[in-house]
Structure formats: C-alpha cells, structure tokens
Write a structure and sequence with these properties.
Strand order of the largest sheet: 1-3-2-4-5-8-9
CATH superfamily: Alpha/Beta hydrolase fold, catalytic domain
Low-confidence stretches: 1-8
CATH topology: Rossmann fold
Distance between the termini: 44 Å
Radius of gyration: 17 Å
CATH architecture: 3-Layer(aba) Sandwich
Number of strands: 9
Mean pLDDT: 90
Structural class: alpha/beta
Largest sheet: 7 strands, mixed
Number of domains: 1
Length: 260
C-alpha cells in the first residue's frame, strides 16, 4: 500500500479479498487511521472456515493524515454500504465484522438489514477523553494528536510492526463523534445475532462501551467476550487467535457460545 505517512514496516496493509468455499461472505472493516492489516487475521480465519472475507481500505485511509482529515464519516459508511450490498447480491448469507470505527460502521449497516449476523471489536460507542467536547473547535487549531506510544496493542512486537497513521487527526475524531451519535440512535433497530468483543486492557474504547452495545440492541442472540491479555486492536494482539476462533464459531453457529 503506497504511503508516505503510515507508521510501520513493510507489511501487507492493503485491501484483501480471501476466497471461501460456501455461499457466505464477511465484510471486515478496519479502525480509524488504521488499515485492513488489523482485521486481516480475522479474514484469514474466516476464509479457512469457508467464508469469503473482504477487507476494503476505507476512504481517507492509507495515504496521509491530511487525506484522513478531509474525509467525512459519511464516506466511510457509504463505501462500506456499497461493499455490503455487492456481497449480498452474490452470497446467500453476509456478515459484518468491524474493529473500532469499523465496528461503528458495521453496527450502522446492521441496523439497515445488510447483514445476517455481525461482530464488533473494541467499538467506542462514547469517547471519555478529557475535553472531547471541544474537538469540534480545536480541530481548526490542532491538526492531530501524536501516537507517542504507537497503537493501543499490548504485544510489543505486534505494536512495532502495526501500520497506522502516526497521529490521530482531530477532525477525524469529530467525524467519529458524529458517527457515534448515529449508531446510538440505531442500536435498537439491530435484531440480528451479534458478537461484541473487547480487549480488557483497552485504553481507547472503554469496556463499558461493549456492555452498552450488548444491552442496547434488540437482538435475541448477543454474545459478549472479553479478552484479558489484549488492548484495543485485539485481532493482532496476544488474544488474536482466540478472537478469530470465537468469531468463526459464532458466525457458523450464532448463539452456540452465548452466556445466560
């Protein structure tokens, strides 16, 4: 993936389309300032299980912070919506899988009836950082906040190779806040089986967000899973393999591992 401003060594951070043997497909969506790399392990596990996995690069990503700042949240949603509709035209069952901002987009599309089941990972339904309400004004004065410690990943090796923008644009955070408001309003319209996964050590999205999502949807089948050794980007963290196994099992048989 050509880039002049994406942190990380030369890894495959581009879009993916991994084949499946059956009639099901999953749309896998990355997070804000991230790339398809961070959900590719989930896509690979789904593909091995016979589910086609498509991971697009969302608008405003993969180039530089300036491009990200210029991109409204509606562009993320519309791009993912087009991809989901295309999968529905060619597959009997379609699933949504989203990390962080990608989880928000997944939930919104789930409320529109585009998926038969869905999973969201580390999805921030609210932001609790001090001064978050001032972002709409500060974005004109401060381009972005440097990620001094890199991405929110516990595994140091995974963090060192993780490709993402080196800063978080404040304008993009403002767009995320707008998207969150839409998703909060849409949660009661989600009725499909839903897996809600979260890293217990996540310092980006509070674990309470996972509970709010699980309690806010109208789905009869909701499975919540906490991954104790991981932070925000669970798919590439210590618990990535466990998350992938949980995801495959859930999509193949929703409700089989749900708690009481």
């Amino acid at each position: 993936m050509p880039s002049t401003d994406v942190r990380g060594p030369a890894v495959d951070a581009g879009p993916f389309d991994l084949p499946g043997l059956g009639s099901s497909a999953a749309l896998c969506l990355h997070g804000l300032t991230g790339t398809p790399y961070e959900v590719r392990p989930l896509g690979e596990a789904l593909s091995r299980a016979g589910i086609r996995a498509v991971g697009p690069l969302l608008p405003g990503h993969g180039k530089d912070a300036a491009e990200c700042r210029r991109t409204p949240y509606e562009a993320w949603v519309e791009s993912a919506r087009d991809a989901a509709r295309a999968l529905r035209e060619t597959h009997a069952r379609t699933f949504g899988v989203g990390l962080s901002m990608g989880g928000l987009v997944t939930l919104l599309l789930a409320s529109e009836g585009l998926f038969d089941a869905a999973a969201c990972v580390g999805t921030p339904i609210r932001l609790r950082q001090p001064g978050i309400g001032l972002v709409r004004y500060l974005k004109y004065l401060i381009p972005g906040i440097p990620k001094k410690a890199g991405s929110d990943i516990c595994d140091p090796e995974a963090r060192s190779r993780h490709p993402s923008l080196p800063s978080m644009p404040l304008a993009s955070i403002h767009e995320l806040l707008k998207l969150q408001a839409r998703v909060l309003e849409a949660l009661p319209r989600i009725e499909i089986p839903l897996l809600v996964a979260h890293g217990a050590l996540d310092s980006t999205a509070h674990p309470d967000d996972a509970r709010a999502i699980a309690e806010g949807v109208a789905s009869r089948v909701v499975e919540s899973r906490s991954f104790e050794r991981s932070a925000h980007v669970v798919p590439v963290d210590y618990d990535g393999p466990a998350l992938a196994e949980t995801l495959v099992r859930f999509l193949l048989d929703p409700g089989s591992g749900a708690g009481p």
